[in-house]
Design goal:
Blueprint (H helix, E strand, L loop, with lengths): L1 E4 L12 E11 L2 E6 L4 H11 L4 E4 L6 H8 L4 E5 L5 H8 L3 H10 L2 E4 L16 E3 L20 E5 L8 H14 L4 E5 L5 H10 L5 E5 L3 H10 L2 E2 L6
Parallel strand pairs: 1-2, 4-5, 5-6, 6-7, 8-9, 8-11, 9-10
Antiparallel strand pairs: 2-3
Helix pairs in contact: 2-4
């Protein structure tokens, strides 16, 4: 895994991870993202010499800045996967402004995959090669055995607490559910910049049966998914 060094990270480098450059925070539409700072080309050349890579797989190769530098200097085949669907309101003013940048990245990719047609909508007119659609998979370790005890009327949300994940809309909907099913409960697992705002929002509306768990482990995630009645993902895009 090639990645910028995370901000404020001072621990041991994880196994099979290569740090190059630094990570900086950037405000994006309805979200906060980390991007990389540019590095000297010599650093990328040194990385290639050290790792002796056979194939490089880029996830969202358009995210500035190191992916583009690696794409343009790669000595081996490159594959890019497109994940994100861009909100229509952003297309005109953001994608258009960085079109030359995006074209230069696309030109350096030998193959392109995408998780859905929606993820390619903002670059379709710039593509002149085949796209292989490979939907996101779900590990079968999350599959219910059928023997797990399910809690009555439990609605579960798992995700980052930021605007685009839509947890506020779940709280609004759950308020209506709780009026008709008083013993229903809502479990919100995940952390993020809106956590305190959402906790206060639920409290101000007098919705008592919502549990905010914060970040949870993969094992806890599996336990929650197997015991809930409904899993709700109300992401707005």
């Amino acid at each position: 895994i090639i990645t910028p060094k995370p901000r404020d990270y001072d621990g041991e480098k994880p196994k099979d991870v290569y740090f190059i450059g630094q990570s900086v925070k950037m405000r994006a539409q309805a979200s906060t993202v980390d991007i990389s700072t540019p590095v000297e080309n010599e650093e990328i050349e040194e990385m290639f010499r050290e790792l002796q890579l056979d194939v490089i797989h880029f996830h969202e190769a358009f995210v500035p800045f190191i992916p583009r530098q690696i794409v343009l200097q790669a000595p081996c085949p490159t594959v890019g996967t497109l994940h994100a669907a861009v909100p229509e309101t952003l297309l005109g003013r953001s994608v258009a402004s960085i079109r030359p940048y995006m074209r230069s990245v696309l030109a350096g990719l030998d193959a392109i995959t995408a998780v859905s047609p929606a993820a390619t909508s903002h670059v379709m007119d710039m593509l002149d090669q085949e796209i292989n659609y490979i939907p996101n998979g779900i590990s079968d370790s999350y599959k219910s055995t059928g023997s797990q005890k399910r809690d009555p009327a439990t609605i579960l949300f798992i995700g980052r607490l930021e605007k685009r994940k839509g947890a506020k809309y779940l709280i609004d909907a759950f308020e209506l559910v709780a009026e008709k099913i008083p013993n229903a409960k809502c479990v919100i697992a995940g952390d993020g910049q809106l956590r305190k705002t959402l906790e206060r929002y639920a409290k101000d509306r007098g919705i008592d049966n919502i549990d905010f768990l914060g970040f949870v482990s993969d094992e806890k995630k599996k336990e929650l998914l197997k015991s809930c009645t409904v899993y709700c993902s109300p992401a707005i895009y």
